[in-house]
Inverse folding.
């Protein structure tokens, strides 16, 4: 039987969005994010991180640094009792419109196939319109982290932080 999952954007969702983060020591977790991830896992969601990283294509972010950033996040979360099933990055420029790059659904679809995920029972959570559109195109429910609602997308739910969304997501259609 296929599992349900939460696909999470990285910057602005789990960690503070520092434009073109290239320093593994620069990772800073958003308030409540770790507790929120733990609650999602306790509600039987597999967790995945899907992140656009155009800084790689632009030569601003080094691929080895990106891998180290994800290793450190993974290890920090593991110590906190949180398991991320996989991390996937789209290291392509905005102009490329690559299938893996959000707002396209490629990362979600590829991970869903690899891990036997039922996308109709799953969520895409992020802080940008591209996150919502990616989730919608993949067939997921969507949650937007935003303090304003002036976007050209209609997420299923929205809130000011990952922590503010957990209970709603966990009990949505329950």
């Amino acid at each position: 039987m296929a599992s349900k999952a939460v696909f999470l954007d990285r910057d602005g969702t789990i960690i503070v969005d520092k434009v073109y983060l290239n320093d593994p020591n620069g990772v800073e977790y958003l308030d409540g994010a770790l507790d929120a991830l733990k609650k999602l896992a306790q509600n039987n969601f597999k967790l995945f991180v899907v992140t656009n990283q155009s800084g790689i294509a632009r030569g601003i972010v080094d691929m080895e640094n990106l891998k180290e950033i994800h290793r450190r996040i993974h290890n920090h979360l593991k110590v906190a009792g949180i398991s991320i099933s996989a991390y996937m990055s789209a290291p392509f420029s905005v102009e490329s419109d690559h299938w893996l790059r959000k707002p396209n659904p490629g990362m979600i679809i590829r991970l869903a196939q690899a891990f036997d995920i039922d996308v109709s029972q799953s969520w895409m959570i992020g802080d940008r319109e591209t996150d919502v559109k990616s989730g919608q195109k993949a067939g997921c429910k969507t949650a937007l982290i935003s303090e304003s609602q002036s976007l050209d997308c209609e997420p299923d739910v929205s809130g000011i932080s990952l922590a503010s969304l957990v209970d709603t997501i966990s009990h949505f259609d329950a």
User: Anything to note?
Assistant: The mean pLDDT is 94. The helical segments are 33-42, 54-57, 63-79, 106-115, 129-138, 162-171. The chain has six helices and six strands. The first strand starts at residue 5 and ends at 8.
